[in-house]
Design goal:
CATH class of the largest domain: Alpha Beta
Structural class: alpha+beta
Mean pLDDT: 97
CATH superfamily of the largest domain: Zn peptidases
Radius of gyration: 21 Å
Helix content: 25-40%
Low-confidence stretches: none
CATH topology of the largest domain: Aminopeptidase
CATH architecture of the largest domain: 3-Layer(aba) Sandwich
Shape: globular
Largest sheet: 7 strands, mixed
Number of domains: 2
Distance between the termini: 63 Å
Strand order of the largest sheet: 11-12-14-13-15-17-16
Order of helices and strands: EEEEEEEEEEHEEEHHEHHEEHHEH
Length: 381
């Protein structure tokens, strides 16, 4: 039986170099189009006949975040429903993945994929709720729809966006859990919160990069989370369109959901170093972090990114631009590609189910601070 390796599908990434035998498969990771970023991989190995497989990603040493492969295990599936971690090692610039066998075909990925088909399923489920208004904000570079969901009747304006970096698929798994909790008609916390606030949710900020199998950029090669200061319809329409909507609705809270390649923890980065940052914003950020830690043992506050010096924040980032423009609580949630080192589950590592549970805790935390979102803050809504 001939072994075949393919990534010619939604979100796929990986060029076969050699597939002469199940235990001697070599693959190269593709760079993002029009950019040098690379790290995400997702491909199928077929024709194994149940034999164990050894796959070597021979250019892993050129990845954007090489340390992300240290202490990391790839995810695998034989049915694209159940995903599990498999033995993985990284040495001399090569990432070696070993699958124990037992199937004719296996899918291997950097993290559990979230396809554009699944995205459309998510939008379809949410749109069936009569409380939800689905809006197409505009078109991406490749001509895909940029979807937004609006729900709630309250005066607070809460924005949740995800997957500016398309390879960070855990962000849309988080969104799936978040929307399920928010739209549960029997969920009392959600119902009470929707009376106080209107949620504006963009589950996937980067449809083009998601479909193309990119790590960080859209079809034009733009890193969307570096475009917020001066987006354009030509290079970064996704940011341009969302930013215009934010200006129209105002923002009282913004949560931008991401994944971090290297750090095996869940943490929140705030708008440290933003020129107009106030004591009230800092205090509310600390309160949010503490409340989320209390609600989820998967969240911690000891480790994360070093804060920017006062006045030195990069205003091209969403969290920083929103905090500066609206004077509100603005945050970036980071989840691991690896596992949560504080509470590991070796079989699955950090997983879609755990993303969903963290999302539920985030909703509880938003509810806990909702009454404080305009207390002592600016009026730049």
């Amino acid at each position: 039986m001939t072994v075949s390796v393919s990534s010619a599908f939604d979100g796929g990434n990986g060029d076969v170099v050699d597939a002469s035998a199940p235990d001697a498969i070599t693959v190269r990771i593709q760079k993002d189009a029009k950019a040098d970023f690379m790290q995400w991989f997702y491909f199928r190995v077929a024709g194994l006949g149940g034999a164990p497989a050894v796959v070597r990603l021979i250019n892993a040493g050129e990845a954007s975040y090489g340390a992300g492969y240290e202490g990391y295990s790839a995810v695998a599936s034989t049915d694209r429903e159940r995903w599990y971690r498999v033995p993985t090692s990284y040495a001399d610039g090569v990432l070696e993945i070993r699958h124990p066998g037992g199937a004719n075909a296996v899918w291997l990925a950097y993290f559990v994929p979230f396809s554009m088909e699944r995205h459309h399923d998510l939008i379809g489920r949410a749109s069936r709720d009569p409380r939800v208004r689905h809006e197409v904000l505009g078109r991406t570079v490749d001509g895909q729809d940029l979807d937004a969901l609006h729900v709630g009747e309250g005066p607070l304006s809460i924005w949740c966006i995800a997957r500016q970096h398309p390879g960070e698929t855990m962000a849309e798994h988080w969104m799936e859990g978040f929307l399920a909790r928010l739209l549960d008609p029997d969920e009392p916390v959600a119902r009470a919160l929707l009376a106080k606030a209107t949620f504006h949710v963009v589950p996937n900020m980067n449809p083009d990069g998601s479909r193309r199998g990119h790590l960080r950029t859209n079809a034009a090669g733009a890193n969307l989370n570096r475009e917020w200061a001066e987006p354009s319809l030509e290079r970064s329409p996704e940011v341009f369109l969302v930013r215009e909507q934010m200006i129209a609705t105002g923002v009282d809270l913004c949560l931008d959901v991401h994944g971090d390649e290297e750090l095996p923890y869940n943490f929140i980065a705030g708008p440290d170093g933003v020129p107009s940052l106030t004591a009230a914003q800092r205090e509310l950020l600390a309160r949010f972090r503490a409340e989320l830690r209390r609600r989820s043992p998967d969240f911690q506050t000891e480790r994360g990114y070093p804060p920017a010096a006062p006045g030195q924040a990069n205003l091209r980032l969403c969290t920083n631009w929103v905090a500066e423009r609206f004077g509100c609580l603005s945050m970036t949630l980071e989840m691991p590609f690896k596992d949560n080192a504080d509470l590991p589950i070796p079989e699955t590592g950090w997983s879609p189910a755990r993303c969903a549970h963290l999302a539920e805790a985030c909703l509880d935390t938003i509810a806990a601070v909702a009454e404080e979102l305009r207390v002592g803050l600016g009026s730049r809504r």
